[in-house]
Amino acid sequence: MTSASPRDEFHTAWTADRRANAAYPKSRFVLRWFRSAQRWRATRGPLARLVFVVVGGSYKVVTEGFMGIELPVSTTVGPGLRLRHGVGVVINPSSRIGANVMIRQGVTLGNRKAADDCPIIEDDVELGVGAVVIGSVTVGRGARIGPNAVVFRDVPAGAAVLSPASEVRLPVD
User: Fold this and answer.
1) Is residue 172 part of a domain?
2) 100: DSSP letter
3) How many helices (H) and strands (E) does the chain have?
4) Residue 167: exposed, middle, or buried by beta-carbon count in 10 A (0-12, 13-18, 19+)?
5) 94: domain range?
6) In whole angstroms, what is the distance from residue 133 CA to residue 127 CA?
7) Is residue 144 within 8 Å of 138, Cβ to Cβ?
8) pLDDT score for 138
9) Higher-confidence residue: 170 or 50?
10) Total structural domains within the chain
11) Among candidates 137, 54, 148, which has minimal Cα distance to 92?
12) Which of 29, 39, 113, 129 is the most exposed, having the fewest neighbouring CB atoms within 10 Å of its CB?
């Protein structure tokens, strides 16, 4: 069995990303650029390397420097990534993200001890606003991580992780 070419992988992933972000033009723009940079990074030859330097370099400068989205080209990301708003997203390059994952603004996927001590996010996971997933943990298929939740242990498939409780205090008369 032969593996798909970088061009075929680009088209498959981009088609799924485009469909998943139909109502989000900024997300479509960023993900198209991300997938293009990944394509050229995986393609061999001196021309491909030159194109990657231009596409990948401009992607990094604009998305990180101006848009506040750190989604490195070297990160393994499945098709159908849903990027909502995107601002403040920080993804460690050693993190792995499955298919049909939703990432909202302020999400961090990072290491805890070593540079490659990073999360694995399985398919169909939703990460709420400001969620932080740290260390070599696995977030199982279909799990939901609530807003501002901090995850540092494995999350089983289909589970929900709630954010810290909010306490409401009424004024004293």
Assistant:
1) no
2) T
3) 3, 14
4) exposed
5) 6-161
6) 9
7) no
8) 98
9) 50
10) 1
11) 137
12) 113
8 Å CB contact between 136 and 112? yes
Examine residue 125 and state whether it is found in any structural domain, yes or no: yes
The H or E element that residue 27 is part of is: helix 25-42
Which pair of tokens denotes residue 159? 């589970």
Beta bridge partners of 138: 120
Please say if the pLDDT value at position 169 is more than 90.
no
For residue 148 the two structure tokens come to: 């501002």
On whether residue 18 sits in a domain, the answer given is yes
Averaged pLDDT, 100-118:
95
How many Cβ atoms are within 10 Å of 134's Cβ, its own excluded?
Answer: 18
Q: Which residues pair with 151 in a beta bridge?
A: 133
Q: What rounded mean pLDDT belongs to the chain? A: 93
Q: 166 lies in a domain? A: no
pTM: 0.91
**Residues 143, 154: Cα–Cα separation, whole Å:** 11
Does an H or E element contain 110, and which?
Answer: strand 108-110
User: Which residues make Cβ contacts (< 8 Å) with residue 151, sequence separation at least 6?
Assistant: 119, 131, 132, 133, 134, 137, 139, 145, 161
CATH code assigned at 22: 2.160.10.10
For 52, the token pair is 């990657």
pLDDT tens digits along 146-168: 999 999 999 999 999 988 766 65
